[in-house]
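# step 3/5: fold
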Amino acid sequence: MKDICEIAYRLATVDTRAAIRKLVRNDQEYDTFSESCVYPDHPRKRASEHFLNLPRTAHEVPREDCPGAVPCALSAIENDSTVVGARGKPADRLIALKFLGHWVGDIHQPLHVSFADDRGGLRFPTRLALKCKRNF
């Protein structure tokens, strides 16, 4: 997640980077925007917004609201973008910025835009097999 936010930061305009730095400078927990993008996961906050769960019959991502009227990554991006761009309290804008960076990262993760019954890939157990070669 940190890498995605670092790339976004580097691709932002000079003025946007300055605005991000100004908000993050007041963060008590994180030193950089890229570090702050893990905020929604530690501990998990706004759980339904980490995903976009589509019905199995879907052939495309909807352009408007989240399917099923449950908050999802699409509505989270829209809502937090609005807060970041508003002239509200800097503390509220900082929190929204941390969420926004995370949501943009989440929608690029495998199975974060998928089907509700996948549960974000949690229904598919995996096993990591490591092979080690020892030279004696």
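# step 4/5: annotate
The chain is about 40% helix and 5% strand.
# step 5/5: archive (pending)
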